[in-house]
Amino acid sequence: FSSFECLIVLVVLCIILIAFCFFIKTVNISVSKKISSINEKKKIDVILDSIYEDIKNDVSSEGDSLFDSVWDRNNSTEDGYLITLESLSGKINLNFLDSKVLLESGLPSVFYDSKNIIEVENIRSERLLYSYEEIKDYISEENFSKYFSFYGFANINIMSATSLELLVNNLTDSFYGTELNQKRNILLANKQLIKTETEYNLFCGINYSEIFPYINLDAAINVNFIDEDCLYKLINYAGFELTSKKRKVDTLLSLRETRELTQEDIITILGITKNDELYYYLGSKTWFWKISIQGKTQDCHVILCRSVEKTSDLKPKFYIIEKRWITK
């Protein structure tokens, strides 16, 4: 080789060596990030497990509120991880809200235009909604997050007719929802509500085990967490036939600042019974929690569900129905 050729070979080898070193460095960084991500996920899972236990072990009362110990961890930092909690049961499940309440309460005002509520109602008549993107043209994301959610069980006495048909048809893989809706229409025409599990079992017939617990008799919204304005707008529905609405809502909101509201508080203050539709809207339990943990390389968002079913020792069952990891 001539000296020039040797120089060319040397340059090429240097380039190859530099490229190889860069490759090794990139691989090492990638492996390091992966190991760091795995370790962070493990740490986040440890925190999540402890939060689950806090929620499960809350036996202080029959309800859920900001006075429960788990809420001391909301917006707190543990080992460098930011924790945020949210009671999704403090919101209205837009899928199941009765059409008359949706159209005739104060809720239409939270949409871009009162006419938008008709568009949303048209969509609801065809299918169940699963994401904000489906209705983003009708309501701001801020208002949707403040008033509504897509997480929540349905109550047989107050769910909309279309959602009853759609959900039951889906659960039973049949057209039984249409039949069940017709049976319920007869009850409602006679101002009758289903008040006991025995009545509900007989109402659903052989399909009860497929329908329950997705549709049940428990109050849908936790008054301890519902936004103040949302509560005023919901109560504004004339069909509830509630007198002194503002005074009663003011009393509820004032009392929940001092202690946890119970189902008995709601019944007493509002002056309602199991014969009133409002009884099945407002309760004191949270059925769905959103738990978020923010780390350096990973964020985790979990939806925890408390079933209306009870175990043999009468303790509630809990399920993780959604868990999403977001890599930064």
Quick overview of this protein structure:
Helices cover 43% and strands 16% of the residues. It is built from 11 helices and 11 strands.
Set down the secondary structure blueprint.
Blueprint: H1 3-56, E1 76-78, E2 81-87, E3 92-93, H2 99-104, H3 116-124, H4 141-147, E4 148-149, E5 154-155, H5 161-172, H6 176-189, H7 197-204, H8 208-211, E6 215-216, E7 221-222, H9 228-235, H10 245-255, H11 263-270, E8 282-283, E9 288-294, E10 298-310, E11 316-327
Parallel strand pairs: 3-4, 5-6, 7-8
Antiparallel strand pairs: 1-2, 2-9, 9-10, 10-11
Helix pairs in contact: 5-6, 9-10, 10-11
Q: Keywords, please?
A:
328 residues; alpha/beta; 5-stranded antiparallel beta sheet; two-stranded parallel ribbon; 11 strands; elongated
Task: Give a verbal description of the structure.
The chain has 328 residues and is an alpha/beta fold. The protein has 11 helices and 11 strands. It has helices at 3-56, 99-104, 116-124, 141-147, 161-172, 176-189, 197-204, 208-211, 228-235, 245-255, 263-270, and strands at residues 76-78, 81-87, 92-93, 148-149, 154-155, 215-216, 221-222, 282-283, 288-294, 298-310, 316-327. It has a 5-stranded antiparallel sheet, with helices on one face. Strands 3-4 form a two-stranded parallel sheet. Strand 1 (76-78) and strand 2 (81-87) form a beta hairpin. The radius of gyration is 26 Å and the shape is elongated. The mean pLDDT is 90.
